[in-house]
Specification:
Number of helices: 1
Strand order of the largest sheet: 3-2-1-4-5
Largest sheet: 5 strands, antiparallel
Low-confidence stretches: none
Helix content: under 10%
CATH topology: OB fold (Dihydrolipoamide Acetyltransferase, E2P)
Number of strands: 5
Structural class: mainly beta
CATH architecture: Beta Barrel
Mean pLDDT: 89
Strand content: 35-45%
Shape: globular
CATH superfamily: EutN/Ccml
């Protein structure tokens, strides 16, 4: 799993049927690289998140052969 921060949102008016509905968020990883992840949790800009990738991300969705490579699986609480 990867830790990163939400930096932006993308909207898609056209999708393949196997892409689950949900926001597509741009995530900046700790090393500065960025990726796009499906967000089933409703995360906000600037939020610290945990992302799973690859085949684990695709298997996240029950009963669907999802076309997904990255999914946000947790919103992380930051130390105060």
């Amino acid at each position: 799993m990867l830790k990163g921060r939400v930096r932006g949102r993308f909207w898609s008016s056209k999708r393949v049927p196997s892409l689950p509905q949900g926001p597509l968020l741009e995530i900046e990883m700790e090393g500065g690289q960025r990726l796009i992840a499906l967000d089933p949790l409703g995360c906000a800009d600037g939020e610290l998140v945990l992302v799973t990738t690859g085949s684990v991300a695709a298997r996240f969705f029950d009963k669907v052969n999802a076309s997904v490579d990255a999914v946000i699986v947790a919103s992380l609480d930051e130390k105060g």
